[in-house]
Every structure is written in structure tokens, then in C-alpha cells.
Amino acid sequence: MLFSDKIKQLRISSGKRQKDLAKAIGVDVPAYSRYEHGERRPKREQVQRLARIFKTDPDELIAMWLADEAYDRIAHDKMATRAATMLLDMLNNKTPQESKIEKVDQESVSPITRDLVKRLGKSLMPHLEQGDAATVMQRIEDESIDCIVTTPPYWRRRSQGTESITATTAEDFINELLLTMAQAHRVLKPQGSLWLNMGDDTTDGFVQGIPWRVVLAMLSKQGWHLVNEVVWNKTTTSPQGSHDHLRKVHEFMFHLVKDDEFYYNDEELRRTCALILRNDDTGRRKSPRVKKQYLQPDNVQGVVPGDVWTISVQRSGIAHYCVAPDVLYRLPIVATCPRNGIVLDPYCGTGTACRIAYELNRRSIGIDINPDYIKHARSSIEQKPLSLF
Predict the structure, then answer these.
(1) Residue 49: strand, helix, or coil
(2) 61, 115, 157, 261: least surrounded by Cβ within 10 Å?
(3) CA distances from 350 to 125, 145, 359 (A)
(4) Distance (Å, rounded) from C-alpha 192 to C-alpha 77?
């Protein structure tokens, strides 16, 4: 069955009119009618909305939508059958020869059990898992996470020996990271948010643009929406000896969502920003002599913060190049994770996001492939009074 036939069947069985569905996904009736006739295809996020309206499996409907696009491109070509075989081989990361030699018995493969959120329960103590991010995330239930905040490994800039992404080229690095982002899209609630902190890399004197290449692929291929690109002004960085380009002192924090009706607590964000200005990152009142400020919104009266965050780099005594400052994670969590919600960090490192979620009365799941980081994260999160903010 083609995608166009499927949505028509679902509409009829649900008793809904084309007019109702067109309004629900933000198009006019003629446009929706063309979807059912196979003349045009909706956007990925519109397919997801339809799945929720029809109360059907979104993964199945999106898979059918993708298959419909592939079918439309090759169906009338004499090489269609051969092309379809090659496509299947590429999706399985096999050469045509390998696919002839190695056949997997699908009945012998155990289905993935998705129960991590169920196992987390109501406990505020973070659930930490050691393993590859994209693999472990397959065990998280669909649309069960409120907020994802994470800093993936930096390409070619971390060498601790056990990294989640070991790609040798920028293209392979981007593709591996996109696998995790696809899982993030699946597990995030419709009203949820993803905050993705990424630094760039300079190769042979030229900036690679990796953060933007990743995000643009997420927008065009996975159905994400970009709410903000935040510039993290790190104020201090390691000395750089180049004489032909500027010293890099910033990274990006991208705020992405999957639906236009996402949760956002503007009041809590403003209040937290004002507290950070008056206090240090532990919530203690600053001495009048202390000059350092972690964030500089327009003023302390609660004006909406800008998209340039001046946050000092947080030092660490362990071999970890990416220790996210507390404030960099605290602001996204208070803004986009409701109280008692669930925070996920698929590259949790030493557990900053999970520790802050715990302090803010949010549940959390952290994943990292490095067992030493998981051990450190567990030891750093203790039963203690919750943060005042």
C-alpha cells in the first residue's frame, strides 16, 4: 500500500474530513487532497502530526512515507529492481556481494525492549547507562523524554581512547551523529526540546562548519525545527598560536524542537537568569568583590535573555576536554523541562546534565560509552538537598 492510500484509509476509518486534517497540519484543503492522490507529499513533521491524529504508529507511517518517495523516484525506471536491491544493501551497510553471502535470520533476532523510562520510575536519582548513545537510546520508549541537553564528542579533539564517535572524516562523523539525533527525535515528546552544544574543527587552516552541517541535515532530513542558535561566549580558551586566523572563543548551542507547540517556561528562565547574575553557580550569594558573571541578559529585572551567553569555562581535575559549565545546562532545563519531567543526555560524560536535573527536581537518564565517566557521574550525584533554583 502506498502512503497516499494509507492516509486516505486512516482518514475514512477515523471518520474525519479532509478539511479537519488540513487545518490540523497547517495546509489548505486542495493541498491535503493532493497528498491523498499521491500528487504531492507532506513534510515529515506533518506526517508525525497525522500519526498522532490517527493514533497510529508514527514510525510505520514515516517509513511508508519514505518508501513512497523512493518508489515515486524509481518505479518507472527499467533499473528499478536493481536499484532497490542496492539501496537495501546500502541501508544495511553491505556491499552487494556481502548481502549474498551473509543472510540474517530475522526470526532469531530478539526484539529491542524499550523500558528505560519505566525502569527509571519516579526516582529523582539519575539512571546512568554505559554504552553507545544511538544503541542504548533504542531501549528508550517512544515520545517519553521531555528535554534532551547534550554535548557530543568533538571530532578529532578528544583522545581518551573510548569515544562514542570514532569517525576519521567529517562526513562520517556527521552521519554517525545523525543516527543519534534520529533516535533523539523518536524518544522526544511532541512538546519536548533538544539542546545541542557543538564546537567546530579547523582542518588545514579552514573551519569545517560541522555544527551547522549537522543541524541543517537534521532540519532537512529528520523533521526538526530550529528555535534558536545560541552563541556560547566562553570568555577564556586555551592559547592558539596561529597567525592567519582569529582565536576561537565560542561554541554553538542549538535549540531544536519537533513540533510548533513545544513547552517553554519563559518566566522560570528569566528568574533563573536573574539569580545567576546575583549568585555564583551554586546558588550562594556573591561577595561584592566578585566580578565574574556567568550570563549577561539585558538586565536583572527579568528581560528576555539574548542569544549570546557569556559563561565562563568550567575547569575539571579529570581528563575530560568537555566539561559543560553548570549554567550552560541549567538554563535549557529550567526553560524547557517541566517539573517532574525527564532529562536525557546521550553523551553525558561526567554527568553534569543529570546532576543539575536532580537538583532541579527532574528525573534524568545519562548515557556514555566511557565507563570511567559513568563511574565519576555516579559518585558526583549524591542524595542532598535540592537546589534553591
Answers:
(1) helix
(2) 261
(3) 15, 20, 15
(4) 42
CA 166 to chain centroid, in Å, comes to 19
Q: Whole-model pTM?
A: 0.67
| DSSP structure string for 251-308 | EEEEEEESSSS----HHHHHHHHHHHHHB-TTSPBPPTT----S---S-TT-PPP-SE
Closest CA to 263 of 152, 386, 146, 139: 146
Grid look-up 527499467 returns: 78
List per-residue pLDDT tens for the chain, 389 residues long.
Answer: 688 888 988 999 889 899 989 988 888 888 888 888 877 888 888 898 899 999 898 888 988 888 877 776 666 666 767 777 777 777 776 544 444 434 444 444 456 789 999 999 888 999 999 999 999 999 999 999 999 999 998 876 544 444 556 667 888 889 889 999 999 999 999 999 999 999 887 777 788 899 999 999 999 989 999 999 999 988 766 655 567 778 788 899 999 999 888 999 999 999 888 887 665 444 444 433 333 444 444 444 556 788 998 888 776 666 544 577 899 999 999 999 998 899 999 999 889 999 999 999 999 999 999 888 898 888 887 645 444 44
What's the CA gap between 304 and 66, in Å, rounded?
40
Residue 60 grid coordinates: 510505520
Burial 365-389 (b: 16+ CB within 10 A, else e): bbbbbbebbbebbbeebeeeeeeee
**Closest by CA position to 116, among listed 366, 289, 371, 350:** 366
Nearest to 159 by CA among 328, 388, 281, 321: 321
Q: Are 192 and 146 in contact (CB under 8 A)?
A: yes
